[in-house]
Design a protein that fits this description.
7% strand, mainly alpha, 4 helices, two-stranded parallel sheet, 90 residues, single chain, flat
Length: 90
């Protein structure tokens, strides 16, 4: 894997977790690739995938759709805070 990806993974490891925001259909594929790479490097850490759920999304303005999926600033920050709280508990 390219050097910048390795540095990013190691930096995330030091912070206790990582979050990623892939497009709808790529969510599981990308999350799987990230988890596989971390495992190959011996890094054990929580990974939270963020993406559009595999269900019907009501047509609306893009900002409203992102908020409904938790992909607005508030939703992403909330997921990050929850991850950090879980890391602190463990």
């Amino acid at each position: 894997m390219a050097g910048k990806h390795r540095v990013g993974a190691l930096s995330a490891h030091r912070q206790g977790g990582t979050a990623q925001m892939p497009d709808a259909m790529l969510e599981d594929l990308l999350r799987g690739a990230v988890v596989e790479y971390l495992a190959s490097e011996g890094i054990v850490m929580p990974v939270q995938g963020l993406g559009i759920p595999d269900e019907f999304i009501v047509q609306d303005k893009q900002a409203s759709q992102r908020a409904a999926c938790g992909l607005d600033a508030e939703g992403i920050a909330g997921k990050a805070v929850k991850m950090l709280e879980n890391v602190e508990k463990n």
